[in-house]
Amino acid sequence: MAALLRDPRIPLGASPPAAPRLLLLLLLLPPAQAAPGAHGRPLSKVVALNVNVGRTPCGRRYIQGKIVGGVDVLERKWPWQVSVHYRGFHVCGGSIISEYWILSAAHCFDRDKNIVAFDMYVGMVDLRFASNHTQWFEVNKVIVHPTYQLYHPVGGDIALVQLKSRIVFSDSVLPVCIAPPDVNLHNVTCWATGWGLISPQGYVTDHLQEAQMPLISLPLCQLLYGQLSYIMLDMLCAGDIRNVKTVCEGDSGGPLVCELNRTWLQVGIVSWGRGCTYPMYPAVYTRVSYFSKWIHYHIKNTPPPSQPLPALSPMLGATISIPVTMLAVLSTL
């Protein structure tokens, strides 16, 4: 499994410092909102970055409207969701940003892991079965940001995954837009999705979960975690503290998306936090807008695979129910 979604500075089994005054303050304050972008650019003028150049528009889904406190997701609701498998098991989430590229967390691809053993699944809602929308891909290349773990135990926690073959887009499989550097996240609705644990007791689900996650300002998040150095500028905090909704182990690498002007932007990547045991602490995400230029550069300048392999796709119009374990076996042949 990928690294646990927990504070990297606190040993396993240790209790984090209590913050009763801050928690009381949170309960008395109105719902938390993220501070406006550094440039204060109006929402009406924000232009999302579509790295899927010249092809399918990003951030548009056909259906409008496990994570602790989450609910089951309808098929096609989050068409950019990716399940990252390692040696046949789901370990992380990810998001489609281009026909050849997946965005995820760097810690999902630690140096001790063999890239050949990774598989990417798109168009999937239930981890147990592949539907007629599911596509399976092998990994061609993983690009980890050069600042990963350089200034912080999980700082720069972002990775680009290039596939060996092209994703076939449909109403169930679509790319999400990348938040631009000057995005304004004031008064936006954001959602997190994933297949992680759905309770502090360790209950798991095979069905994709969703939960609305209010954004939390950087200063407030730093106060909650007790030290300013814990939360850096390349990070973003979100969590529904009042209703005890947060992300858990297994959600790592998954997207945090917000709707702006009827377009869905990915603003965060599930990175770390105190985990399900302490849902009163917000989860910490990689701030996508901080890395948007890096993302665009590599997608534009990295050549596609020289000999793409065909994706495993069912016949058009057919309804299938193939166990994912069978696909995992096929990937090793």
Pick out its properties.
333 residues, alpha+beta, Thrombin, subunit H, nine-stranded mixed sheet, six-stranded antiparallel beta barrel, 4 helices, 25% strand
Could you characterize what this model shows?
This is tryptase. Its EC number is 3.4.21.59. GO terms for molecular function: serine-type endopeptidase activity. It catalyses: Preferential cleavage: Arg-|-Xaa, Lys-|-Xaa, but with more restricted specificity than trypsin. The chain has 333 residues and is α+β, with helices and mostly antiparallel strands. It has a domain of 135 residues: Thrombin, subunit H. Helix content is 11%, strand content 25%. The protein contains 4 helices and 17 strands. Strand 3 and strand 4 form a beta hairpin. The radius of gyration is 19 Å and the shape is globular. The relative contact order is 0.23.
How far is the first residue's CA from the last residue's CA?
Answer: 22 Å
Shape: globular
Helix content: 10-25%
Please report which band the strand proportion falls in: under 5%, 5-15%, 15-25%, 25-35%, 35-45% or over 45%. 15-25%
Poorly predicted regions are: 9-47, 313-321
Rg, rounded, reads 19 Å
CATH topological fold name of the domain at 79-175 and 294-331: Thrombin, subunit H
Number of strands: 17
CATH H-level superfamily title of the domain at 79-175 and 294-331: Trypsin-like serine proteases
Separate helix tally: 4
Largest sheet features: 9 strands, mixed
| Average predicted local confidence, pLDDT | 78
Order of helices and strands: HEEEEEEEEEEEEHEEEEHEH
What's the CATH class of the domain at 79-175 and 294-331, please? Mainly Beta
CATH architecture of the domain at 79-175 and 294-331: Beta Barrel
Catalytic activity: Preferential cleavage: Arg-|-Xaa, Lys-|-Xaa, but with more restricted specificity than trypsin
Keywords: Disulfide bond, Hydrolase, Protease, Serine protease, Signal
Enzyme class: hydrolase
Function: Tryptase is the major neutral protease present in mast cells and is secreted upon the coupled activation-degranulation response of this cell type.
